[in-house]
Design brief:
Elements: H1 12-18, H2 23-38, H3 47-58, H4 62-80, H5 96-105, H6 120-124, E1 129-130, E2 136-139, E3 146-148, H7 161-174, H8 182-186, H9 189-202, E4 206-210, H10 214-224, E5 230-234, H11 239-248, E6 251-255, H12 260-275, E7 282-287, H13 299-309, E8 312-316, H14 331-334, E9 344-348, E10 358-362, H15 364-373, H16 375-379, H17 385-400, H18 410-429, E11 434-436, E12 444-449, H19 451-457, H20 466-471, H21 483-503, E13 505-506, E14 508-509, E15 526-529, H22 536-559, H23 564-571
Parallel strand pairs: 3-13, 5-6, 5-7, 7-8, 8-9
Antiparallel strand pairs: 1-2, 2-3, 4-10, 9-10, 11-12, 12-15, 14-15
């Protein structure tokens, strides 16, 4: 018996229904479901705003919206979830005894490197002054007062009775500290008066004060410079400006020390490159009197180049304020250049003004900019009120010693006269092994070993950052200890010690941290600080004492030219 076959007619619609859905269909179905649930968001407070944002931003693309929603949920989960707990099996528990033993065995790394035997003499050579550091001082281990040529109070205002009186008055009313930054209860009336006095005295629109002179450059320059800006800088600048440029992260081009012709050459080479780029800040950076060499900058030529090539000028007058010019207004007055031709002027109050701290003068917008963005102004404590009052009093004393604004201040004239006399006498009595490096208008006389004698002893022309001499770029690494620099400094220290021992006259020498210098350093110098009240007899005594001491020191070196003997001497110092 045969079984009949049953046939069924399957329609196209039925086949389509039995086929697996396509990816497109799944996407449409998923999108519809997502949109369906997403619409519930509109019932929440503020949900309609989110829905409107999604529609306008993503053109009703639910897939993209879902993908970004997943990223948002992942981010929220990542930041809000607690950190993964450590595996307890990997945790080691110590007993109290074991903890105490580990603590006893632990030796922390020193914060600073240990002083080596080669460097111990540097600490021993620092004189300990007992009492006031005036024109005469008492030093531990030395009988009687000594004539002090080591302090930088060029105008000798720290010993003026009027200055001492106003200092006592402010301390009795305001104490010895400002107790806060200028913008946060750290400003007093004496700070405002000093800013006004500085601006008027230097012929600027406005001034701003800083609590520390070293950080003034490190706060002012980074306020106006950033990565991509350009500074063309004298290669003889001081350490404070070097660090300020590093902090600002700007591009730097160096010109030869106090060489306007080389500066002009560099500006000419940069001009075609800068003309093709978008406008960026451009500064020329230099000092009035260079701290390391005692020379005076060629300001007239620099100002002319600044105007011609459209740069701004940053000038550090820390050593020239209260020294140069008829009224001590700095290198600008010395060359009869208006202060308005110098965009930014900074300076220190710790030299001629017998105080501490720093300042910056210039136009009003530049000063206001610093009050908001200068780090040392915003976050550091203000200058102590009595220091501000002392600086104001010194300015008043300088101005009161003139008949009118055009005549020369008698206080500055006294300093200038004794300075010129000192240079004439020193040049007459100095031995052939020594030479003067500073400008004859600078009351801080730099005396160092003559170049021929340095070559005879085998000392190099420069110390540290040898890479700069070949590549024109400072080294990124700290300089290593230099035995030759140590020996040359020790020779000068022997002259200082003999002068103090035989004549009760105190002079000093340059003290640089060679490891931190970014630029090549000249040899160390004897530093002789001439004061306004220094007498001609004291200068004559100094010249004779220095000639006698140096003669004895160099005679010993001539008899035994091997400088390695210095190593034994400084180890036994």
């Amino acid at each position: 018996m045969s079984v009949p076959m049953v046939t069924k007619t399957v329609t196209t619609t039925a086949l389509a229904a039995m086929a697996p859905p396509s990816l497109e269909a799944l996407g449409d179905s998923f999108a519809q479901t997502f949109v369906y649930y997403l619409n519930f968001l509109g019932k929440l407070p503020g949900g309609s705003i989110i829905l409107k944002y999604i529609k306008l931003s993503y053109k009703n693309d639910p897939i993209r919206s879902l993908f970004e929603l997943a990223l948002f949920i992942f981010a929220v989960h990542y930041f809000l979830s607690s950190k993964r707990k450590e595996n307890k099996a990997d945790t080691i528990r110590f007993s109290d005894k074991e903890i105490n033993e580990l603590v006893a065995e632990w030796e922390p790394e020193p914060l600073v490197d240990e002083v080596t035997p080669r460097e111990k003499w540097l600490m021993k050579s620092i004189p300990q002054i007992i009492g006031a550091n005036g024109s005469k001082a008492f030093i531990k281990g030395v009988d009687g007062p000594v004539v002090n040529f080591a302090s930088c109070d060029y105008l000798n205002m720290s010993e003026l009775e009027r200055v001492r009186e106003v200092t006592k008055l402010v301390i009795s009313s305001s104490g010895v500290g400002a107790c806060g930054p200028p913008n946060f209860y750290g400003s007093a009336d004496v700070h405002v008066r000093l800013e006004e006095d500085l601006a008027t005295y230097l012929g600027a629109e406005r001034a701003i004060l800083y609590g520390q002179d070293f950080v003034t450059a490190g706060s002012v320059l980074p306020s106006f410079l950033k990565r991509g800006d350009l500074c063309v800088v004298d290669s003889g600048i001081n350490l404070a400006i070097q660090k300020a440029l590093i902090v600002s992260r700007c591009d730097i081009e160096w010109f030869d020390h106090n060489d306007p012709e080389h500066l002009e050459q560099i500006l000419n080479e940069l001009k075609p490159v800068l003309d093709k780029q978008k406008i960026r800040r451009r500064f020329i950076v230099t000092e009035g009197i260079f701290e390391t060499s005692g020379e005076i900058c060629s300001l007239p030529k620099i100002v002319e180049l600044k105007d011609r090539f459209k740069y701004r000028l940053f000038l550090d007058e820390s050593r020239s304020i209260g020294v140069l010019g008829q009224n001590g207004k700095g290198v600008a007055e010395h060359y009869n250049i208006p202060r308005s031709d110098i965009n930014i002027t900074i300076g220190a109050l710790s030299n001629s003004f017998a105080s501490s701290g720093g300042f910056c003068v210039g136009v009003v917008p530049m000063i206001h900019h610093q009050r908001i963005l200068s780090l040392a102004y915003v976050f550091s404590a203000s200058l102590p009120p009595y220091c501000a009052k002392v600086a104001s009093e010194v300015i008043h004393q300088i101005l009161e010693s003139t008949d009118d604004g055009r005549s020369s201040s008698s206080i500055i004239s006294q300093l200038r006269d004794i300075t010129k006399f000192s240079y004439q006498l020193m040049e007459k009595h100095l031995s052939s092994e020594l030479t003067i490096y500073s400008d004859s208008n600078n009351p801080l006389i730099h005396v160092g070993l003559a170049q021929k004698y340095r070559e005879l002893l085998g000392f190099p022309n420069y110390y540290g950052s040898a890479q700069f001499l070949t590549t024109g770029k400072p080294s990124r690494y700290l300089n290593e200890f230099d035995k030759y620099y140590n020996w040359e400094s020790f020779i000068l220290q022997k002259i200082i010690d003999l002068t103090l021992k035989n004549s009760n006259i105190l002079i000093t020498r340059s003290k640089l941290i060679l490891e931190h210098e970014s630029l090549p350093v000249l040899g160390p110098h004897l530093l002789i600080n001439i004061k306004r009240t220094t007498t001609k007899q004291q200068v004559e005594d100094l010249a004779h004492a220095l000639a006698s001491s140096s003669k004895k020191v160099f005679a010993n070196l001539h008899n035994n030219i091997d400088v390695l003997n210095l190593e034994r001497e400084l180890l036994d110092y």
